[in-house]
Amino acid sequence: KKAGLDTQKLNTCIASDKYSDKISKDINEGRQIGVGGTPSFVIARTSTDGTVKGKLIAGAVPYNVFKAEIDALAGGK
Of 7, 44, 49, 55, which alpha carbon lies 20 to 30 A from 69's? Predict the structure, then answer.
């Protein structure tokens, strides 16, 4: 409310369950890859054959952790 959010509009949207299927799908996909909470990030690369290679990073981690994973996937660049 302090940020200027229309709380009535938000509450109406939540009550409508308009996005419940999408949210459930996202939650289930996250659980399948090991996401257990937030924040969680997947740093990944897709090969030409569609295979996804990557790593799940869970929790609030420093920049250098992300950089190391990105560099490793990029071949040390």
Answer: 49
Q: Which of 31, 34, 41 is nearest to 65 (CA)?
A: 41
CA-based end-to-end distance of the chain: 45
Whole-model pTM: value is: 0.61
pLDDT tens-digit series, residues 49-61:
988 888 899 999 9
What 3 state SS string does the chain have? CCCCCCHHHHHHHHHHCCCHHHHHHHHHHHHHCCCCCCCEEEEEEECCCCCEEEEEEECCCCHHHHHHHHHHHCCCC
